[in-house]
């Protein structure tokens, strides 16, 4: 147990450049407190002391703002940064070396029964505010962008962003036909350009008409 606690402290120091000392980490990192409380709650949950397990989880939620259901299975070296608003569901499974930021939900869609929460692979970063909803797998080495809403399986070695979440990078290569948002056509400018073109055409036609009238008048005078 103490070896695991030591690893948890080292995980914080490795992941957070702002963490200065073990002392500071132990006493001020609510993500760490939530993980430790979860270990105790999970121990009771596995022995079917469900209410006591839930009670520990809720006390931990009260102090840390992080709700981890006692049934959730979490791997080694999980780092919950800031943590406030994190919710991890009962049937969620989390691999090793995962980083979770504040406001993340690993939840269900409300439509499933039994296993209804996601399975997260190893070396996954789940950005702040993102929601991963449903009983699918998020592969290894996945980055989930802040505020993404992920509703289906994510292959390993990829980056998912947006709502609904879509894979924008796989094995380091950009994928999909995302629009080039910085070079989108501006409809107002396009319309003004079109009006300018029509005005130029009308001016040229008027000039031609005037020239023609002037020549006709000269011909009449010379007669
Ligand atoms: C997704 C993330 C992990 C970067 O992963 P990455 O694999 O390095 O991806 P890239 O930075 O190369 O971005 C790939 C594309 O996704 C876009 N993108 C990145 N993050 C995004 C997000 N959160 N929402 C929407 N689009 C995003 C990028 O603009 C880029 O688009 P482009 O290909 O059109 O230029 C990172 O952007 C992120 O969101 N991290 C979460 C950090 C966080 O929550 N911090 C809180 C600290 S308190």
From TrEMBL:
This is Serine acetyltransferase. Pathway: Amino-acid biosynthesis; L-cysteine biosynthesis; L-cysteine from L-serine: step 1/2. The keyword Thylakoid does not apply. CDD domains: LbH_SAT (cd03354). Belongs to the transferase hexapeptide repeat family. The lineage of its organism: Bacteria, Bacillati, Bacillota, Bacilli, Bacillales. It is found in: Cytoplasm. Its main location: cytoplasm. Keywords: Acyltransferase, Amino-acid biosynthesis, Coiled coil, Cysteine biosynthesis, Cytoplasm, Repeat, Transferase. Transmembrane segments: none annotated. GO terms for biological process: cysteine biosynthetic process from serine. Pfam families: Hexapep. The keyword Transferase applies. Residues 189-223 form a coiled coil. GO terms for cellular component: cytoplasm.
């Amino acid at each position: 147990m103490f070896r695991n606690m030591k690893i948890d402290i080292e995980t914080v120091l490795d992941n957070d450049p702002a963490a200065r000392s073990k002392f500071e980490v132990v006493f001020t990192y609510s993500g760490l407190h939530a993980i430790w409380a979860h270990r105790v709650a999970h121990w009771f949950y596995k022995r079917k002391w469900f209410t006591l397990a839930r009670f520990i989880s809720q006390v931990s939620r009260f102090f840390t703002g992080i709700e981890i259901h006692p049934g959730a299975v979490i791997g080694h070296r999980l780092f919950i940064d800031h943590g406030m608003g994190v919710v991890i569901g009962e049937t969620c499974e989390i691999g090793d070396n995962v980083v979770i930021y504040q406001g993340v939900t690993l939840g269900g869609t409300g439509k499933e029964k039994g296993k209804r929460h996601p399975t997260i692979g190893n070396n996954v970063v789940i950005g702040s505010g993102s929601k991963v909803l449903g009983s699918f797998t998020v592969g290894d080495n996945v980055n989930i962008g802040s505020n993404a809403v992920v509703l289906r399986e994510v292959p390993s070695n990829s980056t998912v962003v947006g709502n609904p979440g879509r894979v924008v990078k796989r094995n380091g290569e950009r994928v999909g036909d995302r629009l080039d948002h910085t070079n989108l056509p501006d409809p107002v400018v396009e319309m003004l350009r079109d009006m300018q073109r029509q005005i130029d055409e009308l001016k040229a036609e008027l000039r031609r008409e005037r020239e023609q009238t002037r020549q006709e008048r000269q011909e009449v005078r010379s007669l």
